[in-house]
Structure formats: structure tokens, C-alpha cells
Amino acid sequence: MPESEILQGTLDLLILKALALDEMHGMGVSRRISQITNGAFEVKAGSLFPALHRMEEAGWLASSWGESETNRRSKFYRLTRTGRRHLQSESKRWERISVAMASALRAT
Amino acid sequence: MLLAFCRNLFRKRRMDQELDDELRSYVELTTAENIRRGMTPEAAAAQARRDFGGMQQVKENVRDVRAGIGLEILIQDVRYGIRSLRRSPGFATVTILTLALGIGANTTIYSVVHGVLLKPLPYPHPDRLVTLWESHPAFGQFLGVAPSNFYDWRTLNGTFDKMAALDPYPDYILTGVGQPRRLTGAEVTADFFPLLGVRMHLGRGFQPNEQGVVVLSYSVWEKYFGARTEIAGTQVRLNDADYTVAGVLPRDFYLVSKSSDFQARAQFDVWTNLGLTSPPAAWLRSTHPLRVFGRLKPGVPLQQAQADLDRIAANLRRLYPDDNKDKTILAVPMEEHAVAGVRTALFTLSGAVAMVLLIACANIANLLLTRAAARRNEMALRAALGASRIRLVRQLLTESALLVLLGSSLALVLALGSVPLLVRHLPADLPRISEISVDKGVLGFTALLTVTTGMLVGMAPLLQSQDARLNVRGISMGQSRMRNALILTQVAIALVLLAGAGLMTKSLRALLEVSPGFQTAHILTARLSLPPRYANGYKFGTGQHRRISVFERELAERVRNIPGVESAGFTSHLPLSGTDNDWTFFIEGRTNPPGVFNSTKYRPVTAGYFETMGIPVKRGRPFERRDDEDHPLVVIINGAMARTFWPNEDPVGKRLKFGDENWRTIAGIVGDVHHDSLGTAPAPEMYIPWGQVPNVEIRPIIVVRSFVEPASLASGLRKAVSEVDSEVPMDQVATMDELVSGSVGESRFRTIVISLFALLALFVACIGVYGVMSYLVSQRSREFGIRMAVGGTRSSVFLLVLGQGAKIAVLGVIVGLAGTALLSRLIKSLLYGVTPLDAATLAGVSIALSAVALLASYIPARRAANADPMETLRYE
């Protein structure tokens, strides 16, 4: 699915989910999203980085500089406490919506 | 502030560096991944870059989401704005200058308007202050008040807190402080200063019935008494009598009035007590010297006070029909009265200057539109590189704000410089001049103007940037229509201003061409003040004028011996000097109904006056030396008086008299003189030989006709006066030309200012036409290229462009003429000898404006015609 069709607000949730286990750099986040959505969402840099920076400003993410696999200086993101809380509440909301949507669409 | 600025700059640089690193690392990681998938390194890198998308766009987007970087963006915008303005210095200069001139002119004029018209009077609770007048349907609305009437008004009213009277006539000669000085004086009732809420700088005001006391103005105290603080209670010598100083007025006190109120005396130097604490003598109901002021009781509206006064007036009419027949009482707010004469003129100036600002705004909007059009490619490029719409709009607004900021700073400097300059050149009879300054209110006004202008100006590129992304080429119809409307407005407003300037110039010229009735060139005038000892007594026929006559003859003799002097004479009131006197008289063999008086202007003059002034004697004879107390009484009248009172008879030889019961024979008729102003018709006027005046006249004005430059005679004249009597002050030395010129001061000032505005408008509109035509040529260069390529001649293209300019000019002129017609009623009262729709003037300015507009289109038209068609087509 092209990224433009990712629902508004979905990208934030996907990034939070991708970072739920471990800290990652931007490229890692992109790959992880692709992986956990079974390749359904390809997040391009043009959307990813503004989102990462915005979420960092919002206090959901924190960042630190480290070395990447290619020994290059990279910026690693991780969830803050607020971010983790936000992930939980957003996940619940999404589950409710998706169940509701699914039953709505199944109805005849 | 500076620190924060530096920190932010630093932080911004670091953030940019980090973002760069982060994004690079992403690309590298993608490349590495691609290689692992089996791509060649080159292909892997290319693929990674493709996947990434526009590096700049991503950066822009990230920067935009970072909170707390608004300031950096602003700084960046400002820096970018400054850079882009510096890239086009012509545009920046023209815009900033246009703004500065527009806003500067506005601030300056509104400073004057604010000081004169809008600022409250400098007294506590000024809204409760009124001036009170006797009114008569035939004699006039604003007549002086009889002391007895004033006394009754004050006693009988129930709506005034205080009522006070001022008698403006006594002048004083101050002696005992070096040279004798003539001081202007006023007698006021004890309530006068408390009514205005004046707090004395030193001492106190008057007790109700106290005589022989004086209150000094601050400037007299400072100038002649060395600002001594122990002055209160000491004696000063005025008119050869001793007065005790009661107090000194504060420095900033002055009486707000218009110059015509007090015979061209702006302010009074010394104040004495008028008394009026008990009912005045009966005859004091038929003389009307007083100016009356009232302070309304708190909460009493003017209408209620007027009703109260109407009731009193009705009573007085009934009780004293001889003096008060048909008389009413008129109450006018003090502020309204003072500025009544200049309101129209000042509002006209404000209107004119507002038009200048309007043109300036239209012009700036146009300039920015043109510029935005020229930068469409740049904007499209920046949009393509990832700048967001909001960002672009913000960039444009920042640029406009920069222009407005620079323009209005310059405007403020301009206003600070020009307000004092203007005040120096204001007509001296404008009321409240001392209250004019660039003050906080006016500064606020400028700020408001600036913001409004900024918003108006900011709108232009905003509209343009609607299609910044989409429309890289081609003209949108909406814009060109707006542009044309703007330029049309400019031309139209310029026409209105030019028409106004043209009309006023013509009016001023007509005014100056009015023959004043005397020869103005080569005459020097000066005011003399004889001490009271010159008046022998107050009873006519007891030699009361002998000493004065001796003085005058001796002085005239000496003056005639000054090299260059042709003749000399004396008068009590000079034409066009703002001073005047009227007397009532009776004609032999006629009786007037009660309450109706014959009244004309009245001038004591000496033999030699008519000759010196060049006033022609039409019939009979001029005055001679022998016309004194010991010879038959004579009078000379002017043509207007002859026509008014003896329309079908020869007045020479007829007799008239004043209240003194002595019949006077009319000895001659002289030509009419414009005494009040060049713009008003000469009024009936009579001349009395100085030696035969029924009252005492010890304030002669000497007029001297010379072969040489009259101003050069001043020192000789002063020497002659002090040789005759060293205690006679001489002041107000002026040539007759100066007096005539001063009498049209207000009209001249207004004409000059409006003309300056009109030139400014013409200049700005000219820039506007040039800008629009240049833009048009650049937009249609491809079309012109094709035209020429298919056989069109250069001259056809030239004429096409010129025709476009002509169309704008003609339409603008038509709209402007319509506007002028609409406004003509407003300026009618300011014009003399020319109608507001004077065909010659309107035709003249229309042609001039069209010519300038055509000239402004000429250069773009030639550019279009001279362009190489191959070049333009290839370029496109």
C-alpha cells in the first residue's frame, strides 16, 4: 500500500509500536514497520523523519547518537514513558475502531 | 535579546548538522541493504537516493515540524528578505520611499490636525467651557457683550457654575524696566482665572472688587522682571500709574482663541481687574466690548443652558427694548469657537494627505504584485524544492513587513523633522499652534497606519501566490484586472489632488491680483504707543489732541527728512492687519427706528495718510494740516459708504455726527480699501482727522512711503521716534507688502501643502504607470515577437503599448474628474474668484496628467518596439 494511503494518525501509532521493543535509528524504524505489517506499509523518508521529529518534540520519543551497523554516526530513537502510555491508549482505541469497522463492513 | 538570538543561531546550525547526519546515515544504510540484496554499489546508491525522495524537501518538512524554531524561521525569512530586497535595490528604494513619504506626510498633517482640532483644550473639564455672545439677525451672530447685559446674564442664569467677562482693549505701556514697552492687556472679572481652572505660578488672582492690581504673564515676568520669585506684592508702573503684582500665570497658560477675537492679539501680557461686582451704569448697555466665558454646571447639557439663556434674553428684550431689540444670546463650546474658521481647511488637508497615502498603498500593492509576478518562477522552484505554501506566504509577508518597517521608520524621521518646520511656516493666525507636536497619539496613529498599510500591502503577493505553484507562465485575468484597477485608482486620485492644487493656486493668484485699494510697494509701517500724559483730558474741545498733534507733526517732519522718504502719515488701524474699529453715527435730517444704528468702520488718520498709502481721493479734498480742533469738523468717507448711505445723492457737503453732538461735514470721498481681507468686499469706512477725533487716540501707526527699500528705513525711523520722545515704544515694524502677504498666509500655506501633495501623487502615480506598463511589456513580449515575426512593424507594437497607457490615463482622468465633481462642494468655501469646476483648471490638469502617464509608458513601449523578435521567441 503506498504511504499516502496510510490513515492519518496511523503512522504515529506504527512508529510507537515499532519502537516498543528496542531503540532504533530511522532506517530501522522504516524496516520494522514494513516487517510488522507484512510489507503492507512502506514508510518513505519524506514522511518518516518529519514524524520522528514531531514525536520527539511532543515528548513521546527520546533520541541519542550511536553507531549504526555500517559504523556510521546515527540517531537512535526510543520510547519515553509518555510515549509508552500513548502507545497503550492508542492501541486500545485502534482495536476498538478496527473491530467496529470490520463488523460494519461485514454486515449485509 | 542578542544573546538569545546568538544561541538560536547556534542551535539552528547544530540542528541542521544533525539532521544532515541522520538523513545521510539513512541513505547509507539503505545503500548497504541494497548491496546485500546483490546490487552493484552504484546502482544500490542510486536506488537508495530514489527511494529517499527529495533531500531538501524532507529537510524542509522536518524543520517545519520542529517546535521552537519559529524564531529561526523568522530570522531566516528576514535574512532572506533583506537579501532579496538588496538584489533589487530599485524596487526596494521606490517602495520604501513611497511608504515613507505617504506615512510621513500623514503623520505630519495629522500632528497639526491633532494639535489644533482634536486635542481637548488645555483646561480642566474643557467640555464644560463655552463662549457667550450677543446675537442679532442683522448685525451678526458673534457680537460683543454689553457690561450691563453680562451682569444680568451672570445674575439670572441657573445653569452656569461660573461666568466671566474679558475686555480685550486696554494696552499698557510698561516703564521703569529699561526701554518703555507696549504690552497687550486685558481686563477680566475676578472669576475668569478660576473659571478656566488656572493655578497661578506665583501669588494669586483677583479678589472680586480689588483695583490697582495686575497679573503678569509668565513671559513678561521672565523677560522684563528677570523671573524674580519675590515679585508678588511689589509695584510695577503701567500707563504712568502704579499697580501691585497679584500673581504670575503659569508658563503653559494661554487663552485659546482665534485671532479675529482680539484684534490680532494672540495673547495678553498683563491682566487687570474688570470689577463688575455691582450693577453697571445704564449707558453700559449700549456699548459692547466684552467677551464672555462660561463654565457649565456639571452634568448640564449645552441645550439646557441655551434654553436658560433664551429665557434671560427674552426678559432683557422686554425690559430694555432700546438696546436689546431682537437680541438673542448664543452659547458656543469654547473649542468649537476657536477652530471654527480653520476646520474646513484642515480637514481638506487631511483628506488630501489621506489620498496621498491611498495612492502610496495602491502603488506599493502594484509594485509587489509586479514583483511577485516576476518571482513566480522562483516561487515555483522553491515550492518544487519542498517549501510549504504557508512558508512561502510567510516569506512574502515578512518581506512586506520589512518594507513597511523600514518605510515607517523613515516616515517617523521625516515627521519629526517636518512638524517643527511646518509649525514655523504655519499662518500665524492659526489657533492653538503651540499645541502642535509629534506626540504619542500621533505616533500611535502612525503605527496603526503602518499596520493597516502592511496588511494591505501584504495582501497583494498573497493573492498572487495562489497560483505560485501551478501557474508558472501566463497571465491570470484576475490579477491583471486588479492591477489595472489599482493603477486607475492612482491616476484618478492624482487627478483629484492635482485639480485641488490647481484650483487653490488659481484662487490664491486671484486673491493676490485683487487690488487692495492702496499701493502696497515701498511702504513701511510701525506701531507707536504714546504714554497717557499725551492725552490732555477726555473732554473734546479742550485741546485734548494738542500734545499728540505736536508729537505727530514733529515726528512727521523728522521722518520726511530721512533720506529716501517721500511722505509719511498716521492711522489708527492699518488695512489687512487684523485690527479694526466700528462707530455708530447719525445722519443730519434722518431718524432711525429704535434699536437700529448706522455703523461703519472708523479710522482717525492724519493729513498725508491718503497720499502715503496711495488711496485715491475721488471727490472733494483730502485732509489738511488745518483740520484740527480749532477748525470746522470734517469727515472723509469711502465709496462703499457713499453708495450705502447716500445711494442717490452727492454726500460731499452733507453732515453727520457721533454721540458727541458735533456735526461734521463730509469733505471728500476716497477709494475703497480691502481692510478685512483681500477676499472680502470693501466695507463702508470713514476717516476722521486725528486732531478732531471725539475720543483719545494715543496709539498711532505710522506709515512711510519711500523711494528706497522700505525695510532699510526702520532704524532711521526708530531714531526719529526716540529723538522726539524717548519714552514712546515703537514695535510691529513691517512693510505693507509683508502685511498683504501675511493676510493670505492661510490660503498660501494650504495651497503650497496641497500642491506638494499633488506633485507627490503625480510622482507616485507616474511610477505606478511605469511599473504596470513595464510588466505588461515583459508579459507580452512573446506576443509582440510573433506580431513582428509575421510582419507587424515596430511602430505598431510601440503604438499598441502606448495605446494601453493612454487607455489607463484617460479612464483614470475620467474617474478622477467624477471624483473632483463629487468633492467640489467641500472645497468651495476655500476658493476665491474661481469655481470648483473651473473648466480651464480641470482641462489643464487632465492634459498634464495624461501627458505624464503617456511619458511613463513611453519607455516600456520603446523597449517593446526595440526588442529583437527572434530573441524573445527563442527565450520563450
Could you describe the 3D structure shown?
The complex is a heterodimer of chains A (108) and B (876). In chain A, a hairpin with a 5-residue loop joins β2 and β3. Chain A has a single domain, classed as Arc Repressor Mutant, subunit A (Orthogonal Bundle), CATH 1.10.10.10. Chain A is globular, with a radius of gyration of 15 Å. The longest helix of chain A has 26 residues. Chain A contains 4 helices and 3 strands. The model of chain A has no long low-confidence stretch (mean pLDDT 83). With 108 residues, chain A is of the alpha+beta class. Helix content of chain B is 52%, strand content 15%. In chain B, a hairpin with a 3-residue loop joins β1 and β2. Chain B is elongated. Chain B folds into 4 domains: 70 residues, no CATH class; 187 residues, no CATH class; 301 residues, no CATH class; 199 residues, no CATH class. At the A-B interface, α3 and β3 of A face α1 and α3 of B.
The major beta sheet of chain A can be summarized as: 3 strands, antiparallel
Question: Helix share of residues of chain A?
Answer: 55-70%
Biggest sheet strand order of chain A reads 1-3-2
Order of helices and strands of chain A: HEHHEEH
Please work out how many helical segments of chain B DSSP would assign.
26
> Structural class from helices and strands of chain A?
alpha+beta
The amount of beta strand of chain A, in percent, is: 5-15%
Please work out how many helical segments of chain A DSSP would assign.
Answer: 4
Shape of chain A: globular
- CATH level 1 class label of chain A: Mainly Alpha
Helix share of residues of chain B?
40-55%
Oligomer: heterodimer
Envelope shape of chain B? elongated
| Chain pair with largest interface | A-B, 19 and 26 residues
Rg over alpha carbons of chain A? 15 Å
Précis, in short:
The complex is a heterodimer of chains A (108) and B (876). Chain A has 108 residues and is an alpha+beta fold.
Topology:
The complex is a heterodimer of chains A (108) and B (876).
Chain A: H1 10-18, E1 24-25, H2 26-36, H3 45-58, E2 61-67, E3 73-79, H4 81-106
Antiparallel strand pairs in A: 1-3, 2-3
Chain B: H1 2-36, H2 41-52, H3 55-65, H4 70-87, H5 89-118, E1 129-136, E2 140-143, H6 147-156, E3 160-167, E4 171-175, E5 181-188, H7 192-196, E6 202-203, E7 213-216, H8 218-224, E8 235-238, E9 241-248, E10 270-273, E11 291-296, H9 302-319, H10 321-324, E12 328-333, H11 334-339, H12 343-374, H13 376-384, H14 389-425, H15 440-465, H16 477-513, E13 523-528, H17 546-560, E14 565-571, E15 582-587, E16 598-605, H18 609-613, E17 617-620, E18 634-638, H19 639-645, E19 655-657, E20 664-670, E21 685-689, E22 701-706, H20 714-724, E23 730-735, H21 736-743, H22 745-779, H23 781-789, H24 794-827, H25 839-866, H26 869-875
Parallel strand pairs in B: 5-10, 7-9, 16-21, 18-20
Antiparallel strand pairs in B: 1-2, 1-11, 1-12, 3-5, 3-11, 4-5, 4-8, 6-9, 7-10, 8-9, 13-22, 13-23, 14-22, 15-16, 15-19, 17-20, 18-21, 19-20
